Structure formats: structure tokens, C-alpha cells
């Protein structure tokens, strides 16, 4: 008898949801950064073991008072994943002392939607004092009932075996949604765009916060098996362009080289990557920007 279901990873920004998804899969499908609001859209990773398949859904962090259209779409995509879930994992950064305002809001919303979640305290590698973890569990358990609590480190791998086993055990009887060998539903182009965005987040995030997106202009496979990709990085302000390009084009060259390596590793083929930088003040107002990301264009 086959089992299959949806598992949604939700939580405040920066809790380590994407790191956990990648760690459970053993491969990178969702980009990670030490800054908040890294994940913009729903990212699916597929775990299959024996007769059971778990479709893990990484979501954008849920934060307070979204103002811009992009932020609102990100959060509504996270709530959609909650609605669709057979199992909800609330990922919490165990190294933060207090419950975040965002987490209070998530717990209240789960309650009103009559949804139950599993509590996953992540980053336990940063908390040597185990009584602190019990304290954190208590704070959360006072606000909601959790069927189960896990203490893990997505970074070191601690506790992931048990969590995986539990997830598989919770999947309802169902035909599989994906073939056994599929790891993600993300199209290769989008993955390549995300990998370039990850490098950009690390390289220029302080100067160009959240104001950029990556688009694919050309995707051409050669007979020798290599792939040529041309991507455009759209920034919102003219002033951001020289920051990205750098003196004599040095910065964009370095970004391109790193991104090329990451994409090549992820796709398992030789990649030629060209990056252009374009100022598009209105990219966040264009419906096609959202379609590309798999988000709804909401008002
Ligand atoms: N020490 C430690 N750091 C971790 C762990 N898990 C994630 N991190 C770090 O926490 C930061 C945020 O990780 P992400 O996986 O991007 O967090 P996220 O919840 O997906 O964030 P958003 O997409 O912005 O909502 C990164 O710098 C990770 O390396 C962990 O178990 N231990
Ligand atoms: Mg993320």
C-alpha cells in the first residue's frame, strides 16, 4: 500500500526552514542566507522511501505587517501551504530567547484554522544548555498543543533521522504524486535563477536589500552537452547598478563565476553563464515577475 502526503515547513524568517529542507533531501533545492526573507516562493522537495513519499514544502518566512505587493504574495503563498498540508512543521530558531511576534501570529492562525503542527526546535547546536531547550518547549506548549516536539540541527544533521522517520510515518494512504527518482518540482531555469540570487544575497545584500530579481533571457543546450545561460539581474534603482557591477566589472565577474559553479554543480553539466544588470524600477509591479516565481499577483 502506497502512502503520500504534503508536509509544510513554516515559521518566522531565518528559522532555518530552507536549510532543513536541503538537509532532509541531501541536496540543495532551496537557497539559504543569514538574512531574512530569502525564500520568496513555495519550494518543493520530494522524499521517497520504500512505499512512502513525503512532499516537503518550504515556504517564505511569515513576518508581520507586509506592505509591498511582493511581501504580501510571499506570505499568502506560505498560508496556502498550510491549507494544503497533511503535516505542518513549525520551525523555530531555538537559539532565540523569546517567542517572536511572528510566531505568536502563526500559532494564533493555526488555532483559528484548527490546524495542528509539530514543533521543531532548530539550531540546537547553538544552545549548549539543554534546560534552555526545555524552557523554550514549555513557552510554545503553553500557547498550543503539539503532537510531537523535535530538537534538531539542520546544519549538523542532529535529530534529522528521527524527524524523517516520523514524517514518513504520518503520510496518509495515497498514490505517489511524483516519480520515485524526482527530488524537486522546480524547473531548472528557476533553480538557476535562485542560485544566482543566492550569490547576490551574500555579495550585495547590505547595499541592495530585497530590491533585485533574476530573469532568464536565454537557455541553450549545445550538442556537446554544455549549457549556455544568459540571465538579467533587475535592480530597482539606478544607484544599485554600479554596486553590482563594481570597479571595471570586477564584482559582477566574481558573482557570475560563483553562480556558474553553483548552477553547474546543481545541474550536473558544464555551464556558460552571462549576467546582465538592468534597472527596472517597476519589476515588483509587473504580473510576469510573479508568474516567473510561481507567486500569485495579488493587490
Ligand atoms: N547554527 C545553525 N545555523 C543554522 C541552522 N539552520 C539554519 N541555520 C542558518 O540560519 C540562517 C537562515 O537559514 P535559512 O534556511 O535561509 O532560513 P529560512 O527559515 O529558510 O529563512 P527565510 O527563507 O528568510 O524565511 C542561515 O544562515 C543558516 O545557515 C542550524 O541548525 N544551526
Ligand atoms: Mg528560506
String of helices and strands? EHEEHEHEHEHHEEHHEH
Oligomer: single chain
- In the sheet with the most strands, the strands line up as 2-3-1-4-5-6
CATH topology grouping of the largest domain: Rossmann fold
Percent range of helical residues: 25-40%
**Overall 3D shape:** globular
What is the overall number of helices?
9
Low-confidence stretches: none
Roughly how many Å apart are the termini? 44 Å
Bound molecules: guanosine-5'-triphosphate, magnesium ion
Give the name of the CATH superfamily of the largest domain.
P-loop containing nucleotide triphosphate hydrolases
Secondary-structure-based class equals: alpha/beta
Main sheet attributes: strand count, strand direction, barrel closure: 6 strands, mixed
What share of the residues does DSSP label as strand, in percent? 15-25%
Let me know the average pLDDT.
91
- What is the number of beta strands? 9
Number of domains: 2
CATH first level of the largest domain: Alpha Beta
Rg from C-alpha positions? 20 Å
Question: How would you describe this protein?
Answer:
This protein is an alpha/beta fold. The chain folds into 2 domains: 3-170, P-loop containing nucleotide triphosphate hydrolases (Rossmann fold); 188-293, GMP Synthetase, Chain A, domain 3, CATH 3.30.300. It is 37% helix and 23% strand. The chain is built from 9 helices and 9 strands. The model has no long low-confidence stretch (mean pLDDT 91). Bound molecules: guanosine-5'-triphosphate (GTP) and magnesium ion (MG). The site of magnesium ion (MG) has 6 residues, from helix 1.
